[in-house]
Amino acid sequence: MSAVPQLVSVVIPTRDGADTLPELVAALARQRTRFDVEVIAIDSGSRDATREILCAAGVGVHEIAPGDFDHGETRNAAITLATGDPIVLLTQDAVPQGEGFLEALVAPFTDPEVVAVYGRQIPRADCDAVTRRQLEAAPTGRDEAARAQCPPGSLATMQPAQRLHLCTFDNVCSALRREFWRDHPFPRSDFGEDVAFGRSVIEAGLAIAYTPAAAVVHSHRRSLGYEFRRTRLCHRRLHELFELETLPHAAGVARATLANWRRDLPWVWRHAPPGAERARQLLRIAALSFVSPLAQHLGSRDARRGTTS
To answer: What residues pair up with 96 in beta bridges, in sequence order?
Structure first.
């Protein structure tokens, strides 16, 4: 794809996204591009004003039953409905920054070996201190552009962490070539369909590009219960895909909890706003310092046993 595309499709899975979708669709409407843009949403049973917001913005909305949602297959269905190439994927709470976001996200496709691109994620203003630090240190928070590729067959010879690093791909803000997707659609998955797709790119000897010039504002304030379930599911999937185990033994959970307290509690004290907000963040990180290691251990254990969490 050396020439400028004629049409780029933006695909957004939605459900009860009325809080963030107005910002998202307004940001897409402000894009300055050399190509046409179509926006398609695939909604799984919204009960708020999601559909009204999308229709008012001229977004094509396709509906599925809530029970039919799957992270991989729902995105595949939406891409099938789209007509552009490349395909941009966003989550409903990822707000593009700047009028050149779409141009920047598809620019790496001028390299013929790049078949997948992902962009930068910037924490929201209300993000807590530790989550902000983690997001800014993550692969999706880097300042420098990156490109991942290796010869076919070599991924299997690498250590699990290195495999994950090479295959990193994130559908919060991503783009892909239709031709490669047609032969390698997203797998049916309750989590991690994006990194599984990234693995298929790297195994084919092709390239994934990261471009910080295409940025979205995206972060969450999640409950401890949600964080536990999500982290456990994540680490089950990482073991299945890459044999990655961050805490294979139960004894490591206690050591990791203590290490987290020593690192994170002082960080929150220094960087969180004073008063009630600082107290809230200190209590949350004190609990999360145990919840996260426990979920990591249980997730990889689930994968070894072939069970679901």
So the answer is: 216
- The answer to whether the beta carbons of residues 196 and 114 sit under 8 Å apart is no
**pLDDT of res. 2:** 53
> Is 173:219 a contact under the CB 8 Å cutoff?
no
Integer Cα distance of 230 and 44 in angstroms = 20
CB neighbours of residue 36 within 10 Å: 11
- For residue 1, pLDDT beyond 60: no
**pLDDT tens readout for residues 83-125:** 999 999 999 999 999 999 999 999 999 999 999 999 999 999 9
Q: What distance lies between CA 96 and its chain's CA centroid?
A: 14
Distance between CA atoms of residues 236 and 126, nearest Å: 30
The CA-based dihedral angle spanning residues 274, 280, 283, 284, taken in that order and rounded to the nearest 10 degrees: -120
User: Which residues contact residue 103 at a Cβ distance below 8 angstroms, ignoring those fewer than 6 apart?
Assistant: 31, 32, 33, 34
Query: Quick check: 189 and 237 in contact, CB under 8 A?
Result: yes
Whole-structure pTM over 0.85, yes or no?
Answer: yes
Question: Between β-strands 7-14 and 87-90, what pairing exists: parallel, antiparallel or unpaired?
Answer: parallel
Q: Look up residue 212 and give its two tokens.
A: 């910080």
State the distance between the two ends of the chain, measured CA to CA, in whole angstroms. 42
Q: Is the pLDDT of residue 301 over 80?
A: yes
Which superfamily, per CATH, for 7-217?
A: Spore Coat Polysaccharide Biosynthesis Protein SpsA; Chain A (3.90.550.10)
Token pair, residue 74, equals 């729902």
How far apart, in whole angstroms, are the C-alpha atoms of residue 35 and residue 8?
A: 7
Cα Rg of the chain (Å, integer) = 20
* Residue-range domain boundaries for the chain: 7-217, 224-305
pLDDT, one tens digit per residue, over 229-281 is: 999 999 999 999 999 999 999 999 999 999 999 999 999 999 999 999 999 99
CA distance readout (Å), 231 to 165, 168, 191: 18, 17, 10
Question: How far, in Å, CA of 138 to CA of 66, rounded?
Answer: 31
User: What is the reported pLDDT for 7?
Assistant: 97
